[in-house]
Amino acid sequence: EAKDHGGDRYFIYHGDMFQRVAHRVMMEGEVKQALAKGQFSLSLQPQLVAKTNKVHGFEALLRWQHPERGMVSPDDFIPLLENSEHMISLGYWVIRRCFELYKGMRDIGLSDVIIAINLSAAQFTDVNLQSYLEALLKEFDLAAENFELELTEHTLVKDIDKAIVTMDALRLLGFSFAIDDFGTGYSSLAYLKRMPVDVIKIDKSFVVGMLENHADFQIIMSTIAMVKNLGLTVIAEGVETKAQLRTLTENDCDLIQGYYFSKPIPEAGLFDFIGREIVDGNWKVFANSNTI
Ligand code: C2E
Ligand code: MG
Ligand code: MG
Ligand code: MG
Predict the structure, then answer these.
(1) Distance 277 CA to ligand 2 centre (A)
(2) ipTM
(3) Which ranges of the sequence are coiled-coil (predicted)?
């Protein structure tokens, strides 16, 4: 269903309305087929504790190997599929795959980490989300504490009261929540106060120029201070240089994610990668890994 809600949608293509709708309908059909044909996979990007370089967990990032178009970026199809039933199916595929990967990691001796899963707005508001998650916890015999659910401000502001109810219920099960792309959406500090969240992710758009741009630097420092004062955990994404890492660490940023430590690791090579990087049960520094 190519439903259109006018103002609350955003489009990445600048063609006319007909082209946009046509493109979206085409994408929906292709996603359905791609799911059946196994063209989706996940890549996992490590999140490290800034002060110790221990691995805290991994963010699961969706990858679509399209037969003609090659690797399609999630930014090029996920926004188009919002509110589509296929995005919900795809989202459930992602969650199940994360459980499978977690079980695989546990089987090779790694169990003290989290996998962070991105949830689309459609998926977060889907009535079956909780029962689906509960069924997976039983099926895989895993704890909800092993998983963090990432939501964007865009998703949260749609219906704050309902979002809080959903989050409270899932947190009772043991899941934790991160606000992704923090500072880029329509958010206010009042909503931050009300949201039952655990982690704030500073968006990479602030990190990229943080050492050259005074405003970005101040925004990051203030965000870290605020998040810590609220008793929450703060993570910076898009950390690419040692200088950024050092500045963030010195200023009490808890967790680091970015190319400096590792690009997202394709799931096919994940267990090898983990096997190589564990020495005597401890994590080695991930610095300058060459995976894509
Ligand atoms: P995000 O959740 O904010 O994920 C972080 C993005 O930053 C990822 O892009 C990651 O590859 C990229 N990144 C990480 N470190 C660096 C760095 O040091 N430098 C640069 N330049 N980029 C870095 P990716 O994988 O292309 O994903 C884009 C977006 O697509 C994600 O942004 C997320 O919003 C969405 N997405 C990805 N997978 C899923 C999924 O399974 N479900 C949903 N609903 N959305 C997803
Ligand atoms: Mg994310
Ligand atoms: Mg993010
Ligand atoms: Mg981001």
Answers:
(1) 23
(2) 0.98
(3) none
- Determine phi and psi for 207, rounding to 5 degrees: -75, -35
DSSP states of 164-217 as a string?
Answer: HHHHHHHHHHT-EEEEEEETSSS--HHHHHHS--SEEEE-HHHHTTTTT-HHHH
What is the pTM assigned to this prediction?
A: 0.91
d(CA 114, CA 58): 6
Q: Which atom of ligand 1 is nearest to the CA of 152?
A: 34
Axis-axis angle for helices 85-107, 270-277 (nearest 10): 40
The residue whose C-alpha atom lies closest to atom 45 belonging to ligand 1 is 118
Give the environment of ion ligand 3: residues with CB less than 5 A. Answer: 180-181, 201, 237
Nearest ligand (C-alpha, residue 150): 2
For 148, the 3-state DSSP assignment is strand
Tell me the pLDDT tens digit for each residue of 30-47. Answer: 888 999 999 999 999 999
Distance (Å) from CA 211 to ligand 3 centroid: 20
Distance from C-alpha of 137 to C-alpha of 139, rounded to nearest angstrom: 6
